Amino acid sequence: MSTDTDDWAAAMAEQAIEEAKAVELDEFSNDSKPLSEEEASKLDAIMDIPVTISMEVGRSFINIRNLLQLNQGSVVELDRVAGEPLDVMVNGTLIAHGEVVVVNDKFGIRLTDVISQTERIKKLK
């Protein structure tokens, strides 16, 4: 067995041992004046807007000829190395990095680094 296989087996065993724990989020500190009824209704409207969240493992650029030749069992090489964190995107904007976890036979993402609001705003410009 190679070292890569041993490392992978060790990581999978460690992940199987760990159980996902519910994390209580800190409430935002409310240092400002209370919202008016009109402001609260506007905020409620925004909170119900759906967004698309996606996790990106990597990318690959191929030409149409190669795309049409793909079939079951084909392997597409991605631009990332194994073990590199996933990108967590909301409506196409990077908001965090994370790693894949398995909890109760379902895949999930453990956030390892959340992009600051300042950095996200810089990327929009």
TrEMBL record:
Residue intervals of the Flagellar motor switch protein FliN-like C-terminal domain: 45-115
NCBIfam families: fliN (TIGR02480)
BP GO terms, sorted: bacterial-type flagellum-dependent cell motility; chemotaxis
Natural source organism: Shewanella fidelis
Keywords noted in UniProt: Bacterial flagellum, Cell membrane, Cell projection, Chemotaxis, Cilium, Flagellar rotation, Flagellum, Membrane
InterPro entries found in the cross-reference section: FliN, FliN-like_C, FliN/MopA/SpaO, FliN_T3SS_HrcQb, SpoA-like_sf
Membrane topology: Peripheral membrane protein
Functional description taken from the UniProt entry: FliN is one of three proteins (FliG, FliN, FliM) that form the rotor-mounted switch complex (C ring), located at the base of the basal body. This complex interacts with the CheY and CheZ chemotaxis proteins, in addition to contacting components of the motor that determine the direction of flagellar rotation.
Gene Ontology molecular function: cytoskeletal motor activity
Protein name: Flagellar motor switch protein FliN
Subcellular locations according to the entry: Cell membrane; Bacterial flagellum basal body
Similarity field: Belongs to the FliN/MopA/SpaO family.
Main location as per UniProt: membrane
The organism's place on the tree of life at top rank: Bacteria
GO cellular component, one term: bacterial-type flagellum basal body
